[in-house]
Amino acid sequence: MNFEIFLFYVFAAILVFSAFRVITVRNPVFAAMFLVLTFFTCAGIWLLLEAEFLAITLVLVYVGAVMVLFLFVVMMLDINVEPGREGFVSYLPVGLLVGAIMLIEMIFLITQRYFKSENFPAPQRAAEDVSNTKELGRLLYSEYLFQFEIAAIILLVAIVAAIALTMRRRPDTKYQKPSEQIGVSKAERLRIVQMPSEKR
Amino acid sequence: MIDAILHTLWTVIKIVAILLPLIISVAYLTLAERKVIGSMQVRVGPNRVGWQGLLQPFADMFKLMTKEVIVPTNSSRFLFLTAPILSLAPALAAWAVVPFDDGLVLADVNAGLLYILAMTSIGVYGVIIAGWASNSKYAFLGAMRSAAQIVAYEIAMGFALIGVLMIAGSLNLGDIVRAQSGGFFSWFLLPLLPLAVVYFISGVAETNRAPFDVAEGESEIVAGFHVDYSGMAFAVFFLAEYANMIMIAALTSIMFLGGWLSPIDGFGDGIHWFLIKTAFCLFLFLWFRATFPRYRYDQIMRLGWKVFIPVTIVWIAVVGFAVYFELGPWFQVRANGI
To answer: How far apart are CA B228 and CA B136, in angstroms?
Structure first.
């Protein structure tokens, strides 16, 4: 067993453990932190697969941005765990049904001939000077340009929709207008009063 | 087997050779800060411990090490003690890809710039977790402020770096420096001046330094996210903040000031130029702190979202145009093999 395989098993063990803890731990903040750990070890496994661009992007986007906002929300919400358990029994059949359907789908997929492990020989190791990032960029901006642009438009629509859904105009809020604040002159703020000096 | 062990040992020695000077620099940066701000305010600064106060950092360190680490009641003990480590570790890990001189780098990776961005974006966890785990309103407010601020300024920072990699044509930090060779006028400072300014100011905001230090604004929320920390746990936060400052200064000198290159072409390139440039950027940090009053929180958000991000987007478009048409003298593609 060489060192890489050893590393893979270490990462995989941490990954499975932390993914399991995400759904079993009581405190939502701990759950979010376990999800961060999951992403991080996943990035480690991707690095072993020589997908360094994807691995670093996973850390950058999911750990560095998405999960930070997630934690932000989870901390603010003050979720109480107990009321969530009230409907456990009544929801159980639906949950079991959905879980069973997903399991059966997975089994169908994995046992089909396309997904058998002998159809996936270990890939050739890339040469040392091959830049993962460059290859990915070349493919994205030449062969898959159309799909890439469509994905970009979908994301743009999602951003516009999210802003449009959450924006509320509240006329009673007193916003500060920095341009007006900067534009004030001395005459508007200061009044010099001439007074005769008093005599004792 | 022997080879592997020797290789590991050699790497560990290299890591120590980076970290030890870094930690000593952090210690003396705190002294430099007090001395510089002192002289800017016509004071002497610390001058009691050692000659001209030169041993002051060690006195501070011994004081912090011998103090008790108090864990507040009802705090989340595990996260409370992990938070300082979470903020320190990325600050140190990012140094792995920083080139000190031509070829003098721990890990010469292709996606170095992305790695730096990823590592600096993880640093915010320490602050958020510290604020939450302390179970204190002040700490929590500080954590919330800092998280929103870091997320806002990270975008401007990333955009500023996109300009750098467009003109350098590489994500490798060593190649970025090599693309700037040819004296002061070939550095990225002049063609990317708006991005350089945005990057450095965002760096100041990202490290929660004055005038963007609302996360620990003493006058409103005592000390922000580390209000409940004492002793060594506090010292680790302190260490992380100063290590991040040095990191941002080093990155600014690599991306925009030509790293180890001398301002006159071929005239004594070397690690000393990298150190001089980094020290200059660090001096700017201290200078800002002594000069500017603290921003109001809404002004910080406005500056980040409504000023810096549009400025960077416009300049990325300009650079894209210039690089596409290879406008001289600055925008010819420089890296080999593109």
So the answer is: 8
Q: Phi/psi at A9 (nearest 5 deg)?
A: -65, -35
Cα B224 from Cα B126, distance rounded (Å): 13
Q: Which residues does B contribute to its contact with A (CB < 8 Å)?
A: 4, 76, 79, 109-111, 114-115, 117-118, 121-122, 124-125, 128-129, 132, 140, 143-144, 147-148, 150-151, 154, 171, 298-299, 302
Residues of A with Cβ-Cβ distance to B125 under 8 angstroms: 36, 68, 71
* Binary contact (B154, A132; C-beta < 8 A): no
> A60, A141, A178: which is closest to B298 by C-alpha?
A178
Instruction: Read off the pLDDT of residues B152-173 as tens digits, 9 standing for 90 and up.
Output: 888 888 888 888 888 887 888 8
- How far apart are the C-alpha atoms of B74 and B135, rounded to whole Å? 7
Say if the Cβ atoms of B128 and A53 lie within 8 Å: no
A70-126 pLDDT tens trace = 888 888 776 655 565 667 778 888 989 999 999 998 887 777 666 666 666 777 777
Chain A residues inside the 8 Å CB shell of B4: 3
Q: What percent of chain B has pLDDT over 90?
A: 7
Residues in chain A, total? 200
Is residue B128 within 8 Å of residue A75, measured between CB atoms?
A: yes
C-alpha of B54 from chain center: 24
CB–CB contact B115 A56 (8 Å): yes
> DSSP assignment, residue B331?
-
Question: What is residue B338's predicted lDDT score, i.e. its pLDDT?
Answer: 41
pLDDT band at residue B335, thresholds of 50, 70 and 90?
very low
Asked if B154's CB is within 8 angstroms of A64's CB, the reply is yes
Please report which helix (H) or strand (E) contains residue A153, including its range.
Answer: helix A145-166
Quick one: DSSP state of residue B266?
A: T
The CA-CA-CA angle for residues A152, A168, B154, to 5°, reads 45
Chain A CB contacts of B109 under 8 Å are: 52
Q: Taking CB atoms and an 8 Å limit, are B151 and A178 in contact across chains?
A: no
Closest by CA to B172, choosing from B248, B254, B274, B252, is: B254
Task: Show contacts of B28-34: CB within 8 Å, 24+ apart.
Answer: B28/B57, B29/B242, B29/B245, B29/B246, B29/B282, B30/B57, B30/B60, B30/B238, B30/B242, B31/B56, B31/B57, B32/B282, B32/B286, B33/B286, B33/B289
Residue of A nearest to B120 (CA): A64
Cβ–Cβ of A72/B124 closer than 8 Å?
no
How far is Cα A2 from Cα A8, in angstroms, rounded to an integer? 10
